[in-house]
Amino acid sequence: MTLRKYLVLVSVTICAAVGETLLARGMKQIGNISPRNLPSVIFAVTNPWVALGILFLLGFFVTYNTALSWADLTYVLPATSLSYVLLAFIARFMLHEQISATRWIGILLISSGVGFVTQGPALTAGPEAANVEAAPETVATGNKS
Amino acid sequence: MKVLYTWGAILLIVLASTTGDILMSHVMKRVGDVHSAARQCGFLTVLRRILSNPLFFVGIVALAVAFYALLFGLSWNDVSLIGPAAAALTFVTNAIAAKIFLHERVDRRRWIAALLIAGGVVLLAV
Asked: Chain-centre distance of CA A81, in angstroms?
């Protein structure tokens, strides 16, 4: 794991938390959408908070897929789950919610889970890894012929 | 109704995002490390390699379904319930699906991490 890879994982974490907070704020403004009125969910994207949230979620999508190109899904997901902790802190400071004892325990559990998985290997070694090595060459030869 | 819509949305988010995650991971693994691939043959070639895989677009559709299910859910309930509940369940379903479909080695360390985080996320929602 290089510094650059850690930075990608940090960007995934931040984009996910900020994006979801912005979406929630926008949807609060829009109010309840009943299933009978379902098409109006499509126009929700015109709300400025929702639109800004989508921008962050796009950033999330790009960095997340970058991470998936060199790490297992079962590594990337836990490694970036500090975003839930960040989400709780944003709620604490923007919405002035109190963080209860249970939430602190939750934050502790998540953090230990993240610490746990990042100690291990990022990518499954073996025949699957060999496939990854072979794939770009297959594409390259395909282009030539 | 509120409870039904909320948990219906959560179930749909879990199913759709697991499908999307598995497909995206599969597509990106075929491409390989994008940094070194881009240095070797250019950014556009890497982009074309990603976009030429039809499964990428199936994955996008799955993630779009998950996104709209999230918006629908958020219109009925708090982000502090829906976000964590959907995420906690997705951690478990993803670990199972990654083992079955992506043949990732989900060892004891990763299982413990997934369960710790799923548990922690549930506690955040309480």
From this structure: 8
